[in-house]
Write a structure and sequence with these properties.
Helices cover about 40% and strands about 15% of the residues. The chain is α+β, with helices and mostly antiparallel strands and about 230 residues long.
């Protein structure tokens, strides 16, 4: 289940966008509303009769980053294989930095992480071991600990979350433990601070250019008056 926004408050969103472009500090309510709208709009643009948004992470990343670039928001496009480790599930996501209550706060933006939580793909029988070597694992959702389910459920519902040590640890380890070409299935734990440090170095090339997004109708425009955009969405 994902968050839906029935009526976007255009005036409020425009005000927030303007503050972001000017470098004005937001409050928590403003940044949450801004990101809720952004994740909802991205999900609606990439939706194709699959609420899990499978194979749409590269496109979602491009839409998000080009939009944030237009607002002068510092953002880090990441790929798990480069940020976390080799021989793991490949996935694209974004970390963005906002000024909130006078301090910089990092947010994990991933509207398609939910694709790794299909029930049939997060069971032990998805493991394939050949000659003592793991050659396939369940999806990342299989590796969420019970104590982390609430924070991950919130990430999947909203499509974003403050990049705390706990979120970074649960999120990063879910991918790290999909590692193949290993000799056991023992859960490996890495601290959230290590993941955060890696995520803030993300410099992946985007799969779609600004022009490609515009020509395909996937670009999020920044007109002063946006009611038409939402009505036609």
């Amino acid at each position: 289940m994902i968050k839906e926004i029935i009526d976007i408050d255009d005036d409020y969103l425009i005000k927030i966008e303007d503050e972001i472009k000017k470098g004005v500090s937001l409050n928590t309510e403003e940044v949450n509303y801004f990101l809720q709208c952004l994740m909802y709009l991205v999900r609606m643009k990439i939706f194709s009769n699959d609420c899990y948004f499978e194979f749409k992470c590269d496109l979602a990343q491009s839409i998000i980053c080009h939009y944030l670039n237009d607002l002068n928001v510092t953002n880090y496009p990441n790929m798990t294989i480069n940020a976390i480790g080799t021989y793991i599930t490949g996935h694209s996501f974004v970390v963005a930095t906002f000024l909130v209550d006078g301090r910089t706060v990092n947010y994990l933006l991933d509207p398609t992480y939910i694709q790794f939580f299909r029930k049939e793909n997060i069971s032990d029988d998805k493991y394939i071991v050949f000659n003592g070597v793991v050659i396939r694992t369940p999806d990342p959702g299989y590796f969420i600990k019970n104590e982390d389910k609430a924070i991950i459920d919130e990430l999947n519902y909203n499509g974003f979350g403050v990049l705390t040590n706990d979120l970074a640890r649960a999120y990063g380890n879910s991918f790290y433990n999909t590692k193949t070409m290993v000799h056991d299935k023992m859960f490996q734990e890495i601290g959230g601070d290590i993941y955060i440090n890696a995520f803030l170095k993300g410099r992946e090339n985007l799969s779609k250019s600004r022009d490609e997004l515009m020509s395909s109708g996937m670009y999020i425009f920044l007109e002063d008056y946006k009611k038409k955009r939402y009505r036609n969405h």
